[in-house]
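From the pipeline queue, job 12 of 40. The input is one protein chain; the requested action is below.

Action: predict structure.
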Amino acid sequence: MIDCHGTRFEPLDQGNGLWIFKKWQPLLKEAGLVEFADFCRLTGKEMDRNHRSVVYRLELGPNKATFYLKLHTNYYKKGLGTFFRKRPYTLIELANILKYAKAGLGELEPVAWGWQPGRPEGDVSFLLIKELTGYKSLSDWLADPACATAGQRRPLARAVARMMATMHEHGLAHIDLFAWHVFAKKEGDEWTAHPLDLERTKKQGCLPWSRILARNRQANDLAVLHLTVPWPQTSWSERMRCFHDYCIFRQLPAGDRHFLARVLTIARHRGRKGKFQFYGVAEKLRGK
């Protein structure tokens, strides 16, 4: 059920719908987390909630390491793509975490996953993930005085371009690549970027038209990120340099005009939605 081949992760089947990753087994055992129900009872600082899911930020272990718990009830995919069997979205996200790890973006670390359909409260699943230590969202970095000038933002932009090129080269498209779903870390003069919230990620298929569909989805990634990086704080020339870096990392023609035109067309179309108006880019695009 969990394919970790080609990654550093090793899942252990605990039975009764519970899987624990080997590295974290001692810590979880010390914290009294050995049964599926133990994870369902966990609580912490509530980060997000809707009628089917809740996300908690919590600390575990003697060193108070930070983790995120996604707990879902009756939240699954069922249709032709799953052969009409229930596939919980926590498993979909876990599978996507492993796909990114195989692509070389493996900083996001799963700790435990579980799925028990038919419980009294409904079909329940959870995913426990280790916090990305030292990372902040791109939105937070752009508001940080350490990134106040274009020169200070330049290496950050290159790291983001490298991240996007890496995942796209491996056929992955995030779909919701908002600035707050891109996290980055600075160590000395080096920057590293990593995507989060991978639930809706799509991977290029093998059918003849899959390449065209994947390219459109990848253009959508660039468009959505473009729309959620504030204007005019980040100038048009900075954005074009980031796109140029992306093309170099992907070994595309420098400044690939056809692909750029596709990105901007998607950005103009999606920019009409209210959630993008706050960042100022949608208004700017009307004049382009």
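Job complete. The two ends are 48 Å apart (CA to CA).
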